[in-house]
């Protein structure tokens, strides 16, 4: 009885995984199509990959997207980490809750709202300051803005894990404020900071809606480019691109899995001795 | 008398809600002794420790260190070090780096640091553990690292904030010996905070018993055990039978409906008092020879002794520790000497209490 | 410590004011402006008077509800079975993996799958059914939305179930509950937190997707999100766009309030 039920659950999981992966594999499959539609596979060809690599416009957009993600995540991590430090040291419960709710507004807001309100903000600022052209700067500022709260949320639990007596201990041993920050607080927070950086990075890579609202003519990210091409119809160059994106994500996942397995082992080792 | 190393003068501490955690505390700490601040959680003992360490400032009053007022001196500028309750070892550093932390901050030369860390590790019997990660150490070992990290800085006073509370019973007993020995070897002042009266009795030269933001009694472990100032101290330290009575005159007290000879003096005639009798001072005899006639309720075997709960004719409950066995329900006698009786007055201040004891004990 | 904190936190506060508080105020402000920049209530009047907007709002909410419901029904067993697997961390990563692929690529895949000559119709024809137009239909939109949101429902439920202390299940069995009773009385109530965060994570985006409606749902306005995009970027009527934005924000707060109010009740 128990055994057969176990099989049913596996069948269910297989179906769900099929649902999740068939569209992705479908995309990748047609990337190798000699024809030019996603309807009929007419023969194997790498032509679309050739097109992709020859498409300098797309390559530049790809680079832009990564530079944007790298920069916005870096700045968001810096600002967010110190924001988390500040929030942690707010003593009054009510102010703390208020700060956290404000922090989370952008986390729960729909993309369109963020995009639309940032568009209003930039035009308002533009008229106030003089000229603020929609483009790389506005996109970068927006990406930093919507990545900060996730960094705060990744760092704050690490603060809570770090018990206050550790800061006390460092002070007790003669460390100045700056030394406490440099030698104790930041190293202890580093897993949270790194996680925050990666989340911010993926948020930036993944974003379409906000960028779509606040970008001008001069600057495009991959997501916006895919959108405009997809609206024009099927182009198997995009399939080829998806294949590469998927492979990259797969490598990251495998790498992440091994890293987490490793640290998991270390943790359990420590726990065992405890 | 030598100048005390630490003095508290009328120190009051209030947090945000204005309810004082410490109410007018005054005491002196002499150099080279083992002090214990003893009391239940919330009595203010940790607050005192944090003020000595420099983590919080008194609301009123002054703290002196070797005669210098240090109220506003920050923690990193004080010559005291702390062993924290949860050890507060830095998880991202190995044993060596943890212990060397304070020395590196002081910018000592590398070879001196090496030397000192080695010595400190030897002192806590962890020689050779330099490269270990904190997560690879057991609770007892972490405890030792925390101690080494503090003493390597050669503080004038070592503060210990319930450092043994996270250890299991056996290890705790072993560490009591080690701490006591370490203190005597280093010859520096230890201030130890605990809620565990056994720890306090076993290790201290001097115990401060705290209750609700006040120091209620100061003295050696023996003094405090034998002559508790009031119900609270008697109850908190050791097991005790506390019975209400009346002091008829010097050396004669009445309780449980009978009059007993005792050795306490200086109390008004017919003053209502409380009487303490420690369970181990009560002996079982047959009914005729006993000073009190009691009925046995329960008998528990405790290993070294039996713990017998019984009640007398006026329904006072008595606890007896004895190696003799008794049958539940049986009628037996309890015998004790006049010296075993300790009489306590209600609301007697420590100064009055000490003066009264001095007047007849010499 | 404090001095440094405040100093270093200044950029964070600039962010709070400029990118959190100001945008909220601006979007509320713009909803009261007409195209000339004068104060007006006309946007709200239009919204409530014309059946078009109310109908669209109702549809959007209804679709978001359906999407959330179906993803929940599919996700709960998935998450539950996943917790029983041996290498569950690995399987969970396989659930997360699709979220790392840009949702536009995934939506794009469905253009091929749904097309009149696409795979679904090959499949239907194989069983002798007439080809059916999925692309540019509301059903098509909902399927793609569900597809994209599925991992965001599975992950919080999985986490909720993972956190559940195994000894509670043993205790329940020990107290005489059978497997089903243990599930309904212990496991499900305790995993409700995860379900709620999943509902939050799915419902709100479902109201606001505009790229999927554009790509899959045909060029029609079927969600609040599409309406906002239309007014901001196509017709350039920011006032009306902001008004619909305010409606969306209010809808968001209602969802949040509903899911967190029950949270309190559960804790009590």
TrEMBL record, chain A:
Which parts pass through the membrane? 12-32, 58-90, 102-122, 134-156, 184-203, 209-228, 240-259
The answer to whether UniProt assigns keyword Transmembrane to this entry is yes
Q: Which UniProt keywords apply?
A: Cell membrane, Membrane, Transmembrane, Transmembrane helix, Transport
- Coiled coil regions in record: none
Q: Where is the ABC transmembrane type-1 domain?
A: 62-256
Q: Which InterPro entries match?
A: Bact_Polyamine_Transport, MetI-like, MetI-like_sf
Subcellular locations according to the entry = Cell membrane
Matching entries from Pfam families are given as: BPD_transp_1
Q: Which PANTHER family does UniProt cross-reference here?
A: PUTRESCINE TRANSPORT SYSTEM PERMEASE PROTEIN POTI
Q: What is this protein called?
A: Spermidine/putrescine transport system permease protein
Instruction: Give the organism, scientific name.
Output: Ligilactobacillus ruminis
TrEMBL record, chain B:
Query: What catalytic activity is recorded?
Result: ATP + H2O + polyamine-[polyamine-binding protein]Side 1 = ADP + phosphate + polyamineSide 2 + [polyamine-binding protein]Side 1
GO molecular function terms noted in the UniProt entry: ATP binding
Instruction: Note the superkingdom of the native organism.
Output: Bacteria
| InterPro entries reported for this sequence | AAA+_ATPase, ABC_SmlMolc_Importer, ABC_transporter-like_ATP-bd, ABC_transporter-like_CS, Mo/tungstate-bd_C_term_dom, P-loop_NTPase, PotA-like, PotA_ATP-bd
EC identifiers of the protein: 7.6.2.11
Keywords from the UniProt entry: ATP-binding, Cell membrane, Membrane, Nucleotide-binding, Translocase, Transport
Domain annotation ABC transporter: ranges: 6-237
Family classification: Belongs to the ABC transporter superfamily. Spermidine/putrescine importer (TC 3.A.1.11.1) family.
- Official protein name in the record: Spermidine/putrescine import ATP-binding protein PotA
Give the originating organism.
Answer: Ligilactobacillus ruminis
Gene responsible for this protein = potA
Automatic annotation (TrEMBL), chain C:
Where are the membrane-spanning stretches? Answer: 12-33, 61-83, 90-114, 134-158, 198-217, 237-258
- List the Pfam families: BPD_transp_1 (PF00528)
The record's keywords, sorted A to Z, are: Cell membrane, Membrane, Transmembrane, Transmembrane helix, Transport
Q: Where in the cell is it found?
A: Cell membrane
| Bilayer topology annotation | Multi-pass membrane protein
InterPro entries (UniProt xref): MetI-like, MetI-like_sf
Main location per UniProt? membrane
Domain ABC transmembrane type-1, residue spans = 57-259
Domain of life per record: Bacteria
- What family does the database annotate? Belongs to the binding-protein-dependent transport system permease family. CysTW subfamily.
Name this polypeptide is given: Spermidine/putrescine transport system permease protein
